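Batch 3, record 17
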Amino acid sequence: MVEHKTQLRVRFAETDQMGVVYYANYFVWFEVGRTNLLRDAGLPYRVMEENGVLLPVISANCTYIKSARYDDLLTIITRIHEKPRARVRLDYTVQNESGDKLAEGFTVHSFMRRNGRPVRPPEAFQAIMAPYFKD
Amino acid sequence: MVEHKTQLRVRFAETDQMGVVYYANYFVWFEVGRTNLLRDAGLPYRVMEENGVLLPVISANCTYIKSARYDDLLTIITRIHEKPRARVRLDYTVQNESGDKLAEGFTVHSFMRRNGRPVRPPEAFQAIMAPYFKD
Amino acid sequence: MVEHKTQLRVRFAETDQMGVVYYANYFVWFEVGRTNLLRDAGLPYRVMEENGVLLPVISANCTYIKSARYDDLLTIITRIHEKPRARVRLDYTVQNESGDKLAEGFTVHSFMRRNGRPVRPPEAFQAIMAPYFKD
Amino acid sequence: MVEHKTQLRVRFAETDQMGVVYYANYFVWFEVGRTNLLRDAGLPYRVMEENGVLLPVISANCTYIKSARYDDLLTIITRIHEKPRARVRLDYTVQNESGDKLAEGFTVHSFMRRNGRPVRPPEAFQAIMAPYFKD
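Prediction for the assembled complex:
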């Protein structure tokens, strides 16, 4: 398993008139989590894109447990439980400073060329992931 | 079943550097779909909120099939398949002008007072929904 | 002068915890206004981009007069007062259904190639604009 | 003068199909800058709001010099040049890691009660600001 933690503060822009964070913004935080996981693993998504490999989202899911609020300091825990093959699934947990779980969700991605064609995971990506998973 | 169609145009703001719509924005369109369904059904969500009943999202899901692009004219089809009780589930389909299905998803909501307490669906809401469902 | 009106409804996503629309979102509406002005003038920005000419924003300004609220039906009035040359300035007024002015602002744009180089306004654009302005 | 620096990373969500950050998002960063300035000054905006004083935006301005890009590590420099009275003006500069200025802008705010009535700046706010300005 790969696990990564990233911290962020809730922005005023992310709230809505219910006084809590608008539900779609959790998916933005998931993206921050996976961007940081990849960068810290040594393969920034920015570089992957520059090399012509994109990671579009195939499906996305979030379950909302407790509301996140403006100025909360949150921890996004991003995990890869299964060895990535043609597809990668990332799981996310959003926690507040007290360790309460506010939300959890996942995204599934495929590897794709700029022209939209599917492509095998880049070797650099496979090499980085391999040590974390038994075959 | 309740069904509602709403049209919208993809905004430049909704795209990302992949050249297509950023995945979290589909959930914003889902919200446009359910807002319009409720308004056209005669019970605007705005009014429901003014009466102290909120409809927070409990879970959200989207499957991405084909990319939506800037300036596309989209149809959001919003459906309620099952009679709402303590919870309501809405299903969404996003289509382009050619009728291609770009994405589908759903959201589940509960009824809640401003203080966070669960509450029964407002009678006005139940009255509006009743004719569409057999018990 | 060129003038264009477009209508849009305030989305829940656009509000913040003050109970009104978050200030940055007015700039998104300005973009909707100019996209629709160009499309209705017969030169969609989408087509201009496909032809390799971009219209990046050089400066943006908004003055907020009255709050826009969720579900408000707004009119965005977009105007070009001066004949576009190397730069184009668009002015925007946001009105509610009662005709109250909620905000006004402007954006200034340059014409640019994909490589970042400045470029003259496309001839199609000049031809469309010419009848509206005396030299 | 009050000056505050805050760092943030450009999110994928913040880009658009030009391959750079969408112009409205700079105003979100300005808000992050002023939120952090107030928190570090000892008077979190969250607390000010809980005490019933809001800081709505009256006007906003941004000049775009160089594009911010996905995954860039940016510094937002937020300054208050003049002693806040009925209104406060904050100035912002956005820099990349090389120290290049990408954008600069400002926002002007008033102090307001929840009911929309103007109100004098809270004493705690005045006390915190006083040492930075000669009368």
